[in-house]
Amino acid sequence: MKHIATVTLMLTFGAAAIYADPGPVNMKLSGSATRSTISLGGTPASEHTLAGTGTLGAFTFRVLSTNMTSPQSSSTCSGPTKMYFPVVAGAGVFGSPDGGLLNLNLTGGGDCIDFAAGNALCTRIFQVNGGTGRYAHAAGSLTLTMTVAPVLADGGPPNFVFFAVTGDVTGNLSGVTAGQGSQDGQP
To answer: From CA 187, how far away is CA 185, in angstroms rounded?
Structure first.
C-alpha cells in the first residue's frame, strides 16, 4: 500500500514538472521588418523577422500581418502628425533552439505612425494555437508591442521599404512542457 502511494505521488509530481506553466510571459526582442511577397485577403502583408530572449528562453519570431489600407480614428493614436491603421489579418510563429514551434493567430492590433517622431508604435495581439515539441499543448494569449523605425527608402522618403524593430512580448501562456526556457528570463 505504501508503495502504491509513493508511485502515485511520483506520477503526480512528474506530470506537474512536464507541463510547467510559465504563466506570465515577458520577453525582449529586436529585428527587422519589410514588405512581404505574401498577400493576405488581397492586401500585401508586412513581414517581421525577430529574435530575443525572456521567459521562454532564446527564440526567433516571424510575424506576417496586414493592415487596413486607409487610416482610422483611434483614442490612443491621435494628433496632427499621427495616423492609425488597424491590423486585419495575420499570424506568427515562435521558434526555440530545441526545435519547438509556438503557433499564433492574430486577433487584433494596429500601427500608430508618428510622422513627427519618424517611427511607429505597432501592436499585434495573438491567440496561441498550440505548436510542436514543448509547445504542443500550449494555450494563452500574447501581445507584441514594437517600435518600428525606417532604415531604407526605395526612391527616397516616404517610400520606406526596410525597418528596424525593437519591442516586447507579454501575456500568459499555459501547457508548455519543461524545456530550455526559464522563469527569470535567461536562456
So the answer is: 7
Does residue 6 have a pLDDT over 60? no
**Angstrom distance (rounded) from CA 61 to CA 101:** 10
- The H-or-E segment that residue 142 falls in is strand 139-153
Reference 102, options 42, 50, 43, 59; nearest CA is: 59
Looking at residue 5, what is its pLDDT?
Answer: 44
Four-CA torsion 132, 135, 141, 145, nearest 10 degrees: -80
Spatial distance between the Cα atoms of 6 and 87, rounded to a whole number of angstroms: 53
Please report which confidence band the pLDDT of residue 156 belongs to, taking 50, 70 and 90 as the band edges: confident
| Residue whose C-alpha cell reads 491567440 in the numeric block | 127
